[in-house]
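Ticket #4471: structure output looks truncated?

Reporter: J.K.
Steps to reproduce: submitted the chain below (135 residues) through the standard prediction queue, then opened the result file.
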Amino acid sequence: MKKFNNLEEMQPYLNEKTKTYVFFESGKLLDIEITFDLIINGNILARDINAQSIEAWDITARNVDACDIDAWDIKAKRLYASCDIRAWNIEATEIRFYAICHASKNIICESIEGRHLNSKYFVLDGNVIIIRRKK
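Returned output as attached by the reporter:
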């Protein structure tokens, strides 16, 4: 896992043309840990992301584990937030959050679950689509 303590350390991974931080080395996507509150006007592409707080345009990863996640689009296999998730679109196999998970357009997943007794997930102008896999 590659650890980043500030935005300057992430700069070598920035593709300025696409405004995307692409964490890719030796032919594979990296697992990354972000130890600071990350706020960028751009995208993130990594294998696994562990962070305190992420605010970005698009986040694409196998697993995202953070306290707060705020993004335009999120695509992940597993999406875990110890606090809340806010996005335009969320597409993940498994979504876990503390109290609130909301999207402006759509949430598409196989499972979604809040840990707080009165947790809520919702969309403003789209649909929550829970896909049931055939056995």
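Triage note (M.O.): checked the attachment and the full token line is present. The CA atoms of residues 110 and 134 lie 11 Å apart.
Status: closed, working as intended.
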